[in-house]
């Protein structure tokens, strides 16, 4: 697998709370130069990116990072993100609802946000580090039924990030048409290739461009 092929699967990410506009612009410049799948940025930066980088695919986060915002707030966030120019939305479920057994509520929330997103891509972050295997399997079924486009492992703000075992579990239990995004803790070229080979269509990381940009700049 070439570095260029890997970079095409990367959501080039900057979500730290101190991110400045200069840092965000650098992220976007790198994404354009190295042809990453998208930039993944805070909602407050979606509109200025869309205005300055006309052809850049912009992803943003909803209910991030804890997921326990009320559904109406998540729907409004998604609506405003799309209107501001986001093409992809990464939403966080309320893990508390899963722990309380409120699976139907989680399903309906995802459906509402997908309806709001329309044809835009919706990725559902389930924060695997807090879930049992049975809960992960149940969420594979929920995400499939909801009509969302991706199931995503992690926010990167939890106690652990993506694991190969979780990606393999997703691959076994998600329905046709649902893709996988791994995020959090993917730090080396070997990690990147391993997650892609395990079934991840996208990887959310801040480090891939730095890892691969030397060879990518010289022709992949």
Number of strands: 8
Q: What is the rounded Rg?
A: 16 Å
CATH domain fold name: TIM Barrel
Kindly report how far apart the N and C termini lie: 10 Å
What assembly state would you assign to the polypeptide chains in this entry?
single chain
Q: Mean pLDDT score, rounded?
A: 95
**Structural class of the secondary elements?**
alpha/beta
Q: What does the largest sheet look like?
A: 8 strands, parallel, barrel
- Please list the strands of the largest sheet in the order they lie side by side: 1-2-3-4-5-6-7-8
Morphology call: globular
Run of helices and strands: HEHEHEHEHHEHEHEHEH
Count, helices: 10
- CATH homologous superfamily grouping: Aldolase class I
Strand composition percent: 15-25%
Parts with pLDDT < 50 across at least 5 consecutive residues? 215-220
State the helicity in percent bands.
40-55%
The CATH architecture classification is Alpha-Beta Barrel
Number of domains: 1
CATH class: Alpha Beta
